[in-house]
Amino acid sequence: MNTQIKSDPTVFVIFGGTGDLNMRKLAPALYNLYLDGWMPKQFSIIGTGRTKYTDEQYRQTLLDGINQFSRSGKADPVKWKAFSESVYYQSSDVKDHESYKEFGTRIEKHAADWKTKPNVIYYMAVSPNFFPIIASNLSKAKLTQDTKRVRVVIEKPFGHDLESAKELNQLLANIFDECQIYRIDHYLGKETVQNIMAFRFANSLFEPLWNRNYIEHVQISVTEQLGMGERGDYYDGSGALRDMIQNHLLQLLCLVAMETPINWESDEVRNRKVEVLRAMRPFTADDVRNSTVRGQYAKGWMEGKEVPGYREEAKVDPQSNTETFAAIKFFVDNWRWQGVPFYLRTGKRLHQSASVITIQFRDVPHKVFPSETSESWAQNRLIISIQPEMSIRLQVQAKRPGLDMILNPVDMVFDYKGTYSNQTPEAYETLLLDTMMGDQTLFMRGDQVESAWELVMPILNTWQNKKSLSFPNYSADSWGPESAEALIARDGFHWFTLPLTSKK
Ligand code: NAP
Q1: Where exactly are the transmembrane stretches of this chain (predicted)?
Q2: What pTM does this model have?
């Protein structure tokens, strides 16, 4: 977390240094940390991949990425020059264990130049197939032993199912201490997501209401207008449940449902989150039938353009059974949440791109005002909008100005844009800074990842073993299959959407 204390001198080794993630997110994030004064005085970024680049050529590719994707716009030539002098490139294949010695030599040289042992962060921005081989080769080259200074960042997806997640955890545990492992879920670095904890635990207002007595249900909705783009081959082996629910949406649920931590220690916060996953009701075969919905998009039109159906997308099996939409009703079986449904929904090619959590409070126990006074009665709602709009709204009933007593719902809004003039840091800036500072609060612990997999496995297995005969079952620019509406309507609710101002 931001403390204005800078980390010790740091060397980043970025596996996948020529890849999309580094170009679009990591390099711009590191550059913005530099601009904002968060980088330590002595740092070095070593990108690596098989592509042959000189340091100069590599710096130019990063500059192109930064000019295109940085939140601070095109790089200032003087500042870029100063930053880029700390950027290097090493061409190597992750499978070639000999080449790891070169990282050791470079790190030692930095240590000698800086006259101190630096923190070393190995960032795995490569295909998950390579996570084990990189970890093993780092270990063989004796680059992992300093548990205080050496850290490893693992990108998503962490495992393909429970068994593979356990295997990967085991392999990492043989090489690293848990305090060295940073499993990234970039959702946790988003400003609004961090603010869920600030809202809940820094205000006395919400806690008395934050339970089954006052909350009727919770909705967590992460919807996208985009289709596959270039990611068809990855996505077809994954699907909405693995790609979104198992990680991002369940993490959001944990933040809403967790108990109050006794302090801000990273393990204390993470313990409270794991407890939520452990309390979640396991799915029986009946639950999978009655409480889950899967969908796959058909071709259609989005904003005046014809778009292909999922099975017609590049690098997707034309008979694919992969879901591009999932809606699931979860329960958290503890005193606080008994009987309160948590509806999670995510999908591609939907009408709107938005990530929104809605907490719907129970209705008033007795209506004092006659029904004709309320034009559009709505129960109180707390609406946490993560993207594209960043806001927290409390929806309350109020009297409309005028001589007669007419009630309307109105919003009390905390809007980032209106409240703060500064640009908000990107999630990757927060998470990279936390990695440098050795703060694991916003990273997933091994047991947390396994608990999340354990929860979704019965759904995953049923969906995999039983092909959907109805696919494709929703059209582009819709809100998903009709059965998703039915899932929530059966309980007397409906999915909420925001009148958002911007689309993405
Ligand atoms: P990508 O664009 O395909 O990049 C893959 C990287 O791996 C390239 O730098 C490539 O470099 C390197 N690579 C491949 N084979 C290699 C080998 N044998 N030896 C050394 N380097 C090798 O993938 P990406 O989109 O950046 O994704 C990387 C990771 O981040 C994945 O785990 C992905 O799930 C995760 N992620 C990505 C995003 C995103 O927005 N892109 C978002 C969230 C998570 P060379 O070709 O030069 O060898």
Answers
A1: none
A2: 0.94
- Longest C-alpha distance within the chain, in Å? 82
Same domain, 126 and 70: yes
The model's pLDDT over 245-299, given as tens digits with 9 standing for 90+, comes to: 999 999 999 999 999 999 999 999 999 999 999 999 999 999 999 999 999 999 9
55 marked ligand binding residue: no
Structure tokens at 429: 């800036």
Q: How far is CA 74 from the centre of its chain?
A: 26
User: What range defines the domain where residue 59 resides?
Assistant: 10-155
- The residue length of the chain stands at 504
20 lies in some domain: yes
152 Ramachandran zone, left/alpha/beta (phi>0; psi -120 to 50): beta
Distance (angstroms) between ligand 1 centre and the Cα of 21 equals 7
Nearest CA to ligand 1 atom 42: 21
Mutate to test the pocket of ligand 1, among 94, 97, 126, 432 (most ligand atoms within 8 A of CB): 126
Instruction: For residue 356, give every residue at least 6 positions away whose Cβ sits within 8 Å of its Cβ, in sequence order, or none.
Output: 219, 220, 221, 383, 384, 385, 386, 496, 498
Tokens read off for 35: 């601009």
> How many CB atoms within 10 Å of residue 419?
10
